[in-house]
């Protein structure tokens, strides 16, 4: 009987439809709750959260580009996407290399966009929302933006890749500033240990041990720098490279000699030795972007590791955090709704009173530059423009270190000191 069959069908489908509606509502509510999860209350926690986002983006770029043909070939061929976005690589000769390169561009472009949005939130007055709330949503947003960029033309992505190879030189400047600060802090701590051992020790042998340790570390750093410069002279046998390497070596060795004289009160052998070694690294970072220059594949992983160490040091806390300059009370920095309530995590104003909004904005900017640096490391584009910008970064770093040596003598009415800020 058709009527009976219809009645039976209604009886069976009605509960299933109701269950599906209920289940869909529950899943939607759970997803919304999950996206609102994750909040941090301290300055240090926000720094580590930014580092987590950067690490997630880097790992996503590496993982997705490891074997891209295994998961991109089928949708590109069978869903009519041959001429859309990244699927254009299907018509090229080196399909795998094309996929790998453009996947790195898309993931890191998504990461850079996320950090710039967080920076923009700081500018328009939504710093607490950007820094402390919706941590899970930030990770999900990064993934979703990367997926959307798969459909963006490759021409736009190659423009990003070319820009990243040059603009990432600004990250090297920030890295140099951080290294100078860490090197001064390292020397101060070991010198303080030597002074304390000299005061407390009856024979003074403890102080000599520390002095020997400092001299040994300085000698190792100088030997590493010497080996690095010799390797660069051999690897890049071009007149342009010789001029840059010779000039950089002469200037930093002169700065090293000045730093150990009694005239330069703020100088130290250990700090200068570390900076000389770092100068060799900066010179490599410039020379490797000379046009028609081949690079060793494994060196990109060295760049990746050094970048990670830089960001970990930044998250741990240094004087770059401006911890003493702009920490504002929680009452002066309420959330964007103007209610004066704490973020979604329910933290009290006492827990958020020491949050540093200026430091968070600075960290967002550095991480945006780091995303471009990672792009240039994993998928580099050599050009005279990139080479010139990275050479300028080398010059800026050398001048910054020289300024730390000469500024106390030139500006007599100012007090100069290096402070270590631990997270």
Describe this structure in words.
It contains 15 helices and no strands. The protein is globular, with a radius of gyration of 27 Å. Helix 2 runs parallel beside helix 6 (135-149) and helix 8 (169-200) runs parallel beside helix 15 (384-410). It is mainly α and 423 residues long.
Give a concise summary:
Helix content is 73%, strand content 0%. The chain is mainly α and 423 residues long.
Map the helices and strands.
Elements: H1 2-35, H2 43-66, H3 69-78, H4 95-124, H5 127-132, H6 135-149, H7 154-167, H8 169-200, H9 205-235, H10 239-259, H11 269-287, H12 299-316, H13 349-352, H14 357-378, H15 384-410
Helix pairs in contact: 2-4, 2-6, 2-12, 2-14, 4-6, 4-7, 4-14, 7-14, 7-15, 8-9, 8-11, 8-14, 8-15, 9-11, 10-11, 10-15, 11-15, 12-14
Features:
423 residues, mainly alpha, 15 helices, 73% helix, 0% strand, disordered C terminus
* Overall geometry: globular
- Beta-strand proportion: under 5%
Question: Termini distance?
Answer: 77 Å
Poorly predicted ranges (pLDDT <50, ≥5 residues)?
A: 4-14, 27-31, 319-353, 418-423
Secondary structure tally: strands: 0
Determine Rg (CA atoms, Å).
Answer: 27 Å
Give the integer mean of the pLDDT values: 79
Structural class label: mainly alpha
Major β-sheet, in short?
A: none
* Number of helical elements: 15
**Helix fraction bin:** over 70%
| Element string (H = helix, E = strand) | HHHHHHHHHHHHHHH
């Amino acid at each position: 009987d058709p009527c009976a069959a219809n009645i039976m069908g209604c009886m069976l489908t009605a509960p299933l439809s109701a269950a599906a509606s209920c289940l869909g509502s529950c899943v939607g509510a759970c997803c919304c709750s999950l996206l609102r999860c994750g909040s941090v209350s301290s300055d240090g926690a926000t720094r580590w959260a930014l580092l987590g986002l950067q690490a997630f983006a880097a790992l996503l770029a590496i993982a997705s580009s490891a074997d891209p043909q295994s998961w991109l070939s089928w949708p590109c061929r069978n869903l009519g996407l041959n001429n859309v976005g990244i699927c254009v690589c299907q018509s090229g000769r080196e399909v795998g290399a094309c996929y790998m390169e453009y996947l790195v561009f898309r993931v890191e472009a998504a990461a850079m966009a996320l950090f710039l949005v967080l920076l923009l939130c700081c500018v328009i007055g939504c710093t607490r929302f950007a820094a402390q709330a919706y941590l899970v949503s930030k990770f999900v947003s990064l993934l979703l933006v990367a997926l959307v960029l798969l459909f963006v033309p490759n021409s736009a992505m190659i423009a990003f890749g070319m820009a990243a190879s040059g603009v990432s030189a600004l990250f090297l400047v920030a890295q140099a500033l951080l290294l100078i600060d860490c090197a001064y802090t390292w020397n101060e701590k070991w010198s303080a240990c030597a002074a304390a051992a000299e005061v407390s020790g009856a024979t003074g042998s403890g102080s000599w041990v520390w002095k020997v340790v400092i001299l040994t570390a300085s000698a190792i750093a100088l030997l590493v720098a010497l080996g690095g410069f010799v390797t660069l002279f051999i690897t890049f046998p071009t007149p342009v490279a010789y001029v840059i390497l010779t000039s950089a070596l002469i200037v930093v060795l002169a700065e090293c000699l000045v730093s150990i004289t009694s005239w330069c009160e703020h100088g130290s052998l250990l700090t200068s030795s570390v900076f000389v070694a770092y100068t060799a690294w900066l010179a490599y970072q410039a020379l490797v972007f000379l046009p028609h220059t081949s690079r060793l594949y494994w060196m990109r992983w060295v760049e990746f590791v050094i970048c990670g160490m830089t960001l970990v040091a930044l998250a741990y806390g240094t004087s770059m955090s401006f911890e003493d300059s702009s920490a504002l009370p929680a009452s002066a920095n309420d959330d964007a709704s103007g209610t004066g309530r704490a973020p979604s995590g329910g933290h009290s104003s006492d827990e958020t009173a020491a949050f540093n909004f200026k430091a968070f904005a600075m960290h967002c900017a550095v991480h945006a530059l780091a995303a471009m640096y990672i792009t240039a490391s994993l998928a580099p584009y050599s050009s005279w423009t990139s080479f010139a910008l990275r050479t300028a970064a080398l010059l800026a770093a050398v001048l910054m270190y020289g300024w730390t040596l000469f500024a106390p003598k030139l500006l007599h009415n100012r007090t100069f000191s290096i402070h270590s800020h631990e997270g």
